[in-house]
Amino acid sequence: MNTIYIIFLIFLGGAVFTYFAGKIHKVLQDILFLVSILVPAYLFFANVEIGQNVNLTLGGISLSWGINYFSWLFSLIVLGLGSLAAIYAVGFMKGEKRRGYFYFNFILSIMAMTGILLSRDLVSFFVFWEIMTWSSYLITIYNGNKVQSIGIKYFVFSAIGAYAMLMAIVMVHHITGSFLIGDMIHAYPAMALSMQIWIPIMFLMAFGVKAAMMPLHVWAPGAYSNAPMAYTSVFSGALSKMGIYGMTLVLVTMVNHIPQGVWFREVLAWLGGITAVIGTLWAIQQDDAKKLLAYSSVAQLGYIITGIAIGTELAMLAGLFLAVMHALFKGTLFMVVGAIEKQTGTSNFTEVTGLIRKMPWTFLSALLAIIALAGIPPLGGFVGKWMLYESLITSNHYLLVIVIFFASTAAFLYCYKFLFGFFMGQEEKEWAHVKEAPAVMVLPMLIMALFMLVLGTFPGIILNPINHGLQALGYADSYKHLWDTSIILNSWGNKVVLQPILYSIAGIFLFFIAFLTWKGYKNTRFISTKDISSSGEVPKEDENLTFSVGFMQPFYRAVEPAMRRQIDKYYNAFADGLEATFEFLRRIYTGNGQTYAIYVIVFVVVMLLFKDFLF
Amino acid sequence: MEEVLYNVLGAIATFLVAFVVGMTYGGLNRKITARVQNRKGPPFYQNFIDTLKLASKKSAIHHGVMQHFGPAFLMVTSVMSLLIVPVLTHNQWFPNLNFHGDLIFLLYIMVFGPLGMALGAGQTGNPNSAIGITRGLSQMVGYEIPWVLALVALMIQYHTTSIVGLMAVQAQSGTWLMFSSPFAFIAAVMAMLGMFSYSPFDVVIAPAEIASGPASENGGKYLFTMMSSGSVFAFVKLTLYVDLFMGGADNIVILLVKTFALYMIPVLYSLTTVRYRTEQSIRWFWGWPSFFGLLAILQAVIF
Known about the structure:
The complex is a heterodimer of chains A (615) and B (303).
Chain A (H helix, E strand, L loop, with lengths): L2 H19 L4 H22 L5 E6 L2 E6 L2 H24 L6 H20 L3 H19 L6 H30 L4 H7 L5 H18 L8 H8 L2 H26 L6 H25 L3 H22 L2 H32 L15 H15 L5 H15 L3 H26 L15 H19 L2 H13 L10 E2 L2 E3 L5 E3 H20 L7 E2 L26 H11 L3 H22 L4 H17 L1 H4 L1
Helix pairs in contact in A: 1-2, 1-4, 2-3, 2-4, 3-4, 3-10, 3-13, 3-17, 3-18, 4-5, 4-10, 5-6, 6-8, 6-9, 8-10, 9-12, 10-12, 10-13, 11-12, 11-16, 11-20, 12-13, 12-16, 13-14, 13-15, 13-17, 13-18, 14-16, 14-17, 15-17
Chain B lengths: L1 H35 L9 H10 L5 E2 L2 H20 L18 H21 L3 H32 L4 H11 L3 H4 L1 H15 L10 H4 L9 H26 L6 H21 L5 H8 L2 H15 L1
């Protein structure tokens, strides 16, 4: 039997067995859960060859599964992050309720994402897409909070996307008579112009919902923050990348072939830029770490969308590299929040402070992830940001580069808020008992942090598969031309050599650390955060010096006018309008037999009165 | 190996020059401010005395690991940007690692230090530090906009993203960029007022308000490292402006003349105004400076 079948069988069987194993023993359930994620991941990377195809016929429709270099790149994100998040989830879910439900849906959504990447026909693509939506929806409402406001919103937007995709698929089948994605791509250049425009728009709507693109992003902050953090790292890190995967395919294989494609690209690029700005501004304002990261995910996806929408070689490299980086650092950060929530019971900056000495390893991974997120060298985020800026500048998008730059500079504000809010500031007695998270949760975070550090100096490790993936989509080879193992170049020939940067930063840093602490370090004594000079006085023990409410207020005051408008309000107004319409309809269809009898009588009377005119 | 040694020695020499020049400029600033305010003021070498005193002190207490790291992070930014910005046009004596002087790399390495310092200051638990930092980061979002507008205008006009490339453009045409791209120069100089954060943009340290902000829990060697980092960084910023807009400098005398002339802009402007609130300062940068930045881009696109 082919490995691809085996992978899906393990996923499916593992999901069912894990669900019921909880009735026997909890440890067995954990082991089964890990097995049903890690074994398929191993089998996938060890045994599935690129270019391999399997075909089967189900109910008269021939399905085709296979993999190319481009989908292999994304499977690296899905299965890599999925495996680490699974290990983390075992620690995170210890002692929680409804573990079977969580594990079941977790496995199913990993399976669905793998399935999407393997699908070579639209039917299985759609089916897996729906499984992904359902399983993520069920995890979003796992804790039973805010099912109405958050769950329904996520589901409505997903449904809109899914229907758009379904319509596109039906239209494609009507034209080509085949469900194969390859046939669709071949037939596309010969289609009528209206089809050439509507089919990509519908697909982009479906993918835009999952990629949280403005104006389809409103579900994301709620859904990301309401799901358990062990899943949100996958939700934001990998699941949103499915939208990016689909978008890239639509843009490269379809839109590129028509002259109107340039408008698609410009609109998408600007939507990406605006998404980045809006996401960043809202992230700064949040007091809940989960919400902050959720908005920040929206913003980061904006950069990625801009990158792939610009579509030059460098921009594609930038977008896809940022996608990998985003999976790494946002995966880590959501895990950090999960660890803190697990240990303290809250994820609110205004409640918990000063954890740095209690959770040092969590802090270290959070620090590295934040540096990567902010795009500061020597971590990997810088490489992605650099390539994105250079691609925007060399492709003459001067205003967009300012928009993106504004978003990523403003991102420093929430980056600092995240680190300060949790780890810095006054150490309060309330949190004196907090311990470091268990090793099973800390290890995945540290592994990812290490990856980010390595990618900052040797981005070639990831740029190589990206390059192969892009070549599979028809781009030219960009090795040595736009990147090398540790050099990045732009198309004007300017370059950044990354290795000396790492070494000089490390050298300077170590020298000054030595200078500061060489002598007398042993003689200095540690003092508490209460033992400080505040305006020349030493504060008393009971004095509250915690600074966390209204943290970024000066900035918020400056941008306030821009934040008064919210797309969410318009959606709500639209929903209210619909509700009013339904209310009106309800007055007509009262459900009362007598009213209906009157309608019938009135109808008959009208008929009789006007029969001469009507017939 | 020899090359590495040569680079390291060159870096140390450049660092020393930057340190001395930055410190002297800081002293002159104090002197000029005092004379304008009709005081006698400290001697111009007062800053050297201060830093030497601080360097010779021993610390008795600390608040944790990040507090040690903070000033070191700050130094990384100063020295790294010093290594990127070419000090002299044909630098025999001041070789830098250069990394081909990429401007976007420079923009990002410039925030490495402040963010690291912010963490160090955060661990001390002094609320004034954190308030100062939130102000500083907010103001940074303000002045980065005109600054980036100016840089992007230069980049698209001359099709290069490296400082060396822009210097080569000036050497070739014989005109300084401050004349061939005047709007970019105006926007960049206005952004420089924010970078130096002298009055009216001294929201970060705001001495009478939040007790020097981020620096408030640091003393001795820590404060010494921060002060010298500030001096070196001031030199880097001025040299960068000279390289970008004034054709660079062939020898150290010309460099001093040009940088000092530039340095007088924030110094003298600071004497005329009082401190803004943070949001006023941000909006100031998003007003006229950004307008000139947009004009610069327009000029770059059209010509």
